[in-house]
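We store amino acids, tokens; thus:
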Amino acid sequence: MSTLKIREIQPEDNQQVAEVVRTVLVEMGVPKVGTAYEDEALDDMFATYQQPRMNYFVVEEEGKVIGGAGIAPLIGLEEKICELQKMYFLPEARGKGLGAQMMDTCLKFAKSEGFEQCYIETLPYMESARKLYGRSGFKSLNKPIGDTGHYNCTMWMIKDV
């Protein structure tokens, strides 16, 4: 029997989380420059998310990290808007409703931290992710907000939390 659980990131998860994110980005054909692939934070996600109003959650199955997502203040609009960050799942995690569960976990955390809205950047060909965001109530924006540094992400969405 599979034992799936969503929990907060721990220091020993760092390597697995970085591998999940980079593996999925390569699988999706995402540019390595101007996206999460080159973020220095990927190599020490635990420390990165130990700041105020930030948290990163992982999906673990039988001791293996198979996905994750985080919430952090959106740079430039920190007081009221958070950003859903680095939400990626390996193929074995997909199609099990984990995306919706992770989204719920992240948005509950965002609300508990006093954020009013949540922002996402994505790419046109990440269709499954965009469908999940739409089902979760995210609406498209015409241009980016904040200062994420992910200039190759060309789709932007936001929702009230």
